[in-house]
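Lecture 7 notes: from sequence to structure.

We start with a single chain of 184 residues. Read the sequence below before looking at the structure.
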Amino acid sequence: MSGEKEGSDRRNGFDFRIVALIAVGLVIAVVTGFGMSVFLKQKRDELAASLAKDDPMPADWMFIDAGDVDLVIEGRKVYEANCASCHGYSLEGQPDWQQRGPDGILPAPPHNEKGHTWHHPDAILFATVKLGGQAFMPQGVKSGMPAYGDILSEREILASLAYIKSRWPSKIRRRQEMRTNQSG
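Now the structure, written as tokens:
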């Protein structure tokens, strides 16, 4: 052979190992994304059943209106009194929020457009505040987000979320609204 090793995956200057690695990476990404989607749907269904016991209104009703000025004003007060100490007064979250601490818990994430809050439909956001972050964690993963269901009224939870959403750029609000609409 002219300089190529026998059994090489290189043909005409093209390395098929790279293609194979990319294909494997894509398969892993799709399977992981699908698995998380199924996990979140299961958690959402469990939440709907749980909320239905306490509240005759189904979880599908959930849309938090960041355009409701009175709700946003109330929400700012609720957020500053209950959320800002961890998530920041400017919604910036804690430093290194994507890296687990020595206790295995992730620091409080930002609620601005740089975080992942807007990736979730309103019903999940509401339930996370009400029930705590642990309600949505896979087994073995710890959340530092406490439950506020016994501390805040449902209106106060809605108001705090309306305030958070009101701070997002309009493009992010539209994307999050689409996720909320698709989750029903």
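The helical segments are 16-54, 69-82, 84-87, 122-131, 154-166, 170-183. Keep this in mind for problem set 3.
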